[in-house]
Specification:
The protein is α/β, with parallel strands linked by helices. The chain contains seven helices and seven strands. It has helices at residues 24-37, 51-60, 75-79, 98-111, 124-127, 133-150, 165-174, and strands at residues 14-19, 41-46, 68-72, 89-91, 117-122, 153-159, 177-179. Helix 6 packs parallel to helix 7.
């Protein structure tokens, strides 16, 4: 990820990206476009928007859909079932199911082993609707350590004003760099 975020060094692999609420979706698309253009396979963990909506937005913005995989925590929760024939997507029951999210992440990272992969977690702020901040912090700590051990890059997207100061300070300690 050298140079991805204005001079990020090779040892900087975990980023906390804070955006204004009205720019969150565009920031997600911009990040995926930039990552795929740099040759990354992107694994989007979506708790904010269904993968079908994001996939359509990515395609409209010229992003190669074969470079993007999803762990979708919204669609099954909203529809009550999983749509048929959706490729490169693992559906979990809801955004509060951190166990299934962790299992899906482990499986997808195993499947993508050998590829230059970056996960994009969208969004930490939305998870606060479903879970207490302490549970989210523990899960993000688990994920960041897994990514470091596997030498996989990670970006955690959040609404800047949507995080309480304690959670923001914890997430900051997990990241190599915070980008506003």
């Amino acid at each position: 990820m050298t140079g991805f975020f204005g001079g990020a060094s090779d040892d900087e692999r975990i980023f906390l990206v804070l955006a204004a609420a009205d720019h969150l979706k565009q920031k997600n698309t911009d990040l995926v476009r930039d990552l795929t253009a740099k040759g990354f396979t992107v694994l989007v963990i979506t708790t904010n928007q269904p993968s079908a909506i994001l996939r359509r937005s990515y395609e409209q913005n010229g992003i190669d859909p074969t470079r993007v995989f999803f762990i979708d925590a919204i669609t099954k929760y909203a529809l009550g079932s999983v749509p048929e024939g959706i490729e490169r997507t693992t559906f979990i029951s809801n955004p509060a199911n951190l166990t299934d999210m962790g299992i899906a992440l482990t499986g997808m990272l195993r499947d993508l082993q050998g590829e230059e992969t970056c996960i994009l977690f969208d969004s930490i702020s939305t998870m606060l609707i479903y879970l207490p901040s302490v549970n989210i912090s523990k899960f993000i700590h688990f994920v960041t350590n897994k990514l470091r051990l596997l030498d996989v890059a990670g970006i955690f997207l959040a609404v800047e004003e949507g995080l309480d100061p304690v959670m923001l300070s914890q997430l900051t300690t997990f990241a190599d760099r915070v980008i506003r």
